């Protein structure tokens, strides 16, 4: 292949290669010829011809770094044809990290002062594309000068170049502020677009600039009104909308200027109402403008009627055939459901219909929004829809919905988290008017199916707590049914004897059986017999409970009614939210007042009984602690009846909680890590992210990578939305298995979208894991 063949011929030869090996051969021969010609004296414009071919080779992914110095030489050339290819090569082959980029700084400065506007444009585009911080500092005065030029074409390019400089060097923003303000008086849409983008960057990075540019709100409103009411303009019309790109940029800037400022918000209320009512929503372009209008209305201090109008626009989006539009509508409604709950409630039917969508992401958003709309007035209707959805949704969604909101794990089967049981018990305890209804429903569920551990545990707990209500059979909300004492004990005994019951489930059933001894009158001896059987159980937990309960029957029968009375209302002790309330909270065990008062009434035992190992409670002078009898099965009694404390006086010190270690802190986003060892080679890492900025963060995702010999499993995150000022957090659990005991390292990629719509991505490496 001749070195002088045109670019088109080289492309044709590469495309005609039958194999990758043949393609590499063609490219290697051509690159060798290009290298040889680079060393020769320029021969009739061959330099630009060869560099163009090299850029095509670079686009195919082959190395082309040897052309960097040729780019520098061609940029310094007086010929426009060579400058054009040289600047293109610099943008593709050079970046700010390479020293060669510093060599073109002087050439760019000279070309910025060139008399030809197209040469100036080449220099501006290159600086905006790959200018380093040092280049930006050196050339910023030249850009400020071009911002005041008379040529609209140059001012547009200079404004966009200034945006890059402000992003690279924040301190230079003050230099461009006066010129940016004057650009708003231009008539050229390209210049206006560049000015709005520049002002947006200045306001986002400097609070002083934000206050200064709030004075430009009337000017921006006038520009926006001119776009909305202007007639057809072939130059700027897109699907019947006049310059939607400029409209969207202006709306974003107005949102920043009106946030937390009532005066600026009042100045733009009429404009936003006009845009919301006059923009055509049948086209995608119109929907884009309407969506930005809605975001602006919801983010500023707007009037209540205008906020309702914005919510109604999102409601119309829910009826759109485009799934992307439905998704962003539900995402926006999710953000405001806490502040504009009634307005969102009007679209509840449409939101619930989205649960039937085929798209998994739309369905997930619809579920989250539907759960947020559940209230006391619509809970019956909503629960029917949500339970119907649970019967057909994926297991992951079942787990999430049951954990967060739905007070019934039956539809979700075994796909519920461990903390669902105490959370549901807490919910039942705090809803006294539904105790009778709940115990009847759970009793029937227990008779139907005992293969679902979470449901069985809650049912056993309710039968033990509210067995008297079950036996009365006076629940008005269920069909009349008579449950006898034998029926209730048969159900619990079935759970105790079932091979499907775990030790924890048997613990619930045994405690419920013991509690029924104070709620029934004729079958106390049967309960005593059931409890005594488990006094020799192989499971230590069940054996301990049975021994303690037997001691209550034998020695402290007069205290049994007080010890086994109903649990009080369970308080909440951790943060979270469910429709404005906390959810997912751990349950505090509160000892009844009656039990605390009975401590001094315990009889003193003879000293010779202290050594009687079969009378574990007899030798204890400590008051009887009813935590095991009253609380959940995972509690451990610390009285003298602890089987691990047979010698007496041995106190078990609880394990200290795993330390929380910060691993990332940047731009208001922080990430902490907690490690817990689950086995000899396994561990669980809990990552918790929070947002301390004044703006919400959406589409927040975490990705993790570990050495190849380590097995990694990332569980579903708690969400992907981080509200401003740390109002809520996102947690992500990662299970690791390190069978080869290699030096463990983890690299985490953090990505999210800011409220201004810009995407952000960063990476952090964790080299040590505390607590292991």
TrEMBL record:
It comes from the Eukaryota. Gene3D superfamilies: 2.60.40.1230, Leucine-rich Repeat Variant (1.25.10.10). Keywords: Cytoplasmic vesicle, Golgi apparatus, Membrane, Protein transport, Transport. Signal peptide: none annotated. It holds the Pfam family Adaptin_N. It is found in: Cytoplasmic vesicle membrane; Endomembrane system; Golgi apparatus. InterPro entries: Adaptor_Complx_Large_Subunit, AP1_complex_gsu, ARM-like, ARM-type_fold, Clathrin/coatomer_adapt-like_N, Clathrin_a/b/g-adaptin_app_Ig, Clathrin_app_Ig-like_sf, GAE_dom. GO terms for cellular component: AP-1 adaptor complex. Its main location: membrane. Residues 656-770 form the GAE domain. It is a peripheral membrane protein. GO terms for biological process: axis elongation; central nervous system development; intracellular protein transport; vasculature development; vesicle-mediated transport. PANTHER family: ADAPTIN, ALPHA/GAMMA/EPSILON. Belongs to the adaptor complexes large subunit family. This is AP-1 complex subunit gamma.
